[in-house]
Design a protein that fits this description.
70% helix; 0% strand; geranylgeranyl diphosphate synthase activity; Trans_IPPS_bact-type; squalene synthase [NAD(P)H] activity
């Protein structure tokens, strides 16, 4: 590989990892042990890259496709890229992967004894995004979240050595809620990609059409629908809060940050009057800190 191509490759990986700063919650905050931070960022790099493949948001230059051995003629085919990415993921467990972000993941997998299942779930979720554009029921959406979000929480618990069945159940509630919150923030962006993550049964219930979702601002029926889905997500976050109280020290702070990030994002949606069509409502630092304090207080009482 020439020095110029290596520089493009490094820039592509840095661009992927750099998106961590834009997430609703801290990915690997400074207060965690260095080993945890390194492992969480390795998992984040995987999750962010597979999402970027699924969304068609890869860094320009084609470095990712080259590393995955995808012919340039197929570099825009997301299903081809996902198949190649899955093949490279298997090399993490039995040989040497080609993509630099997967090579960075390999020490984490070995150190923490991680299995392929959660990683394959994330790939399956992004493959589903290419084939399924609408969800008829809330249960259908929950099944998607099981692949796209809950697997991430389970990896966090595995990395920190705290993955008991009860903690996994609570983590699933929090992670599903975080995925729903992201869907609420990104209704307009998702629709531009011809995707709707609001259950069709709920659109019918609130008399919302796809044309309503394409409007520049939300009408009363859309706002009522978003308020309904937001309360569902808030209830899931509260139900999962005992997870925070079940752990100690810096891990408790991390999980409180995840939960507070979702609650602060919901506060932003509420403050916007549930109009998510004008642009994704973003949480503020004061709201995040306030919610983190409330989560820690609640966790202390319930833990």
């Amino acid at each position: 590989m020439t020095e110029t191509r290596q520089a493009r490759t490094d820039a592509s990986s840095r661009a992927t990892l750099g998106k961590a700063a834009d997430e609703n919650f801290p990915v690997a905050p400074f207060f965690l042990p260095r080993a945890w931070r390194d492992d969480l960022m390795a998992v984040y790099g995987f999750a962010r890259l597979v999402d970027d493949i699924g969304d068609g948001d890869l860094a320009p230059g084609g470095a990712d496709a080259r590393h995955l051995g995808v012919d340039p003629a197929d570099a825009a085919d997301r299903l081809v890229l996902l198949d190649a990415f899955e093949a490279d993921l298997h090399r993490v467990f039995d040989s040497t992967p080609h993509h630099p972000l997967l090579r960075a993941l390999q020490p984490t997998v070995r150190r923490r004894g991680l299995t392929p299942g959660p990683f394959l779930g994330l790939i399956a979720a992004n493959r589903q995004d290419q084939l399924v554009r609408r969800y008829e029921t809330y249960d259908d959406l929950l099944a998607y979240c099981e692949l796209s979000a809950n697997t991430v929480g389970r990896l966090v618990l595995a990395i920190t050595g705290t993955d008991t069945p009860e903690r996994i159940r609570r983590s699933d509630e929090i992670c599903t809620a975080l995925q729903i919150v992201e869907h609420l923030q990104d209704v307009a962006e998702d629709l531009a990609r011809d995707r709707i993550y609001l259950p069709a049964e709920d659109l019918k219930r609130f008399h919302v059409t796809e044309r309503d979702l394409a409007a520049p601002t939300a009408g009363a029926s859309v706002r009522a629908l978003i308020a309904f889905e937001a309360e569902r997500a808030r209830a899931l976050l509260h139900a999962g809060t005992p997870l925070v109280g079940s752990v100690h020290g810096r891990l408790r702070l991390l999980l409180a940050g995840f939960t507070a990030g979702g609650l602060a994002a919901l506060d932003a949606v509420t403050d916007a009057g549930y109009d998510v069509l004008a642009g994704p409502p973003k949480s503020t630092k004061p709201s995040l800190m306030r919610q983190a304090g409330a989560v820690l207080l609640r966790a202390r009482r319930e833990g």
